[in-house]
Here is the input.
Amino acid sequence: MRKLLLAAAAALLMGSGAYADTIKVGVVGPFSGPFALQGKNFKAGIDAYMATNGNKVGDNTVEIIYRDLPAADPAQSKSLAQELVVKEKVQYLAGFYFTPDAMAVTPILKQANTPLVVMNAATSAIVTKSPLVVRTSFTTWQTSTPMAKVAFDKGVKKIISVVSDYGPGVDAENAFKAGFEKAGGEVVEAIRMPLATNDFSPIMQRIKDSGAQGVFAFLPSGPTTLGFVKAYNENGLKGANIQLFAPGDLTQESDLPALGDAALGMLTTFHYAVSHDSPENKAFVEAAGKAIGNPAELTFPAVGAYDGMHVIYKMIEATGDKQDAQKAVDAVKGLTWTSPRGPVSIDPESRHITQNIYLREVAKGDDGKFINKEIQTFEKQGDPGLAAVK
Here is the structure.
């Protein structure tokens, strides 16, 4: 009888959550293939956060389960998410580099009772597809809108836009056009390229023929952005004084050594630069640099993942080992903290991140290495694109 009573007491304690549990977080991203560096940055940001803050929240241990999605593939993305929820029993989904992959997962969140923390995918509409989505990255509306004012203030009145033809590219095109025309400028032509485009010479000729004084460009960070900037220089556009304006995807830090002196002076607007001057960023760069192995590979998806883990830890604090997706999301609405990128918050209505956007100029740092030097701050930027999708 005494043994039975002890067993019953133990069962009650386990049912009450007094015993530690393992909270699983499923992360989907490109860990192989042409965009593997971005997945590597996801992992570096996550590892840096857990190295700094531990792998426990209260009595619960946090475990990360990774799934590789080398390129945009919505069907495979949904399949991987379902596998993580059903087979691995994850309580949180996170990561997602490409917009179509994040979009594909939103329909399963409610039934799965699982929040999704978007660590990169940058189309405004993602957060509108489910009340269980929270974003800790950025949107292309958010990073592209300030560049319209920068271009106009530089004396450019006619511009041509060139973007990759998928959600974030279309968002970037629309954001820049809205801001540039509002300022009094004219977009003389808008070109949308297939996502797989890697020969940019015909595009460069169209830019020359357009009569534009400048070009606004958006491509997803990776091999394509490096190829585009090289083509811009090699086809004589820089020499012809056709100015290049872009969100920061085009000058991610890992590409700057390959671009070399040709990139000096290039202007971009973005939410994060590895060179951001703050104590929080210095600590982050040190931890994430160790995690990634080669600090020269550190770039912006790492900070989206780092802050994504901060949000997930806050969700776990609110819910413990009880899976309650809506309570978890509600707990981080209005959350504010100091990120490596600067002051940030989660908008309580949109669940999108509010943050500073910085105008950066490619320059050489004190050590002679290429950096994105922040030269102007657009404070507390929300997502103008949300109004466009409502």
Notes: The CA atoms of residues 81 and 105 lie 7 Å apart.
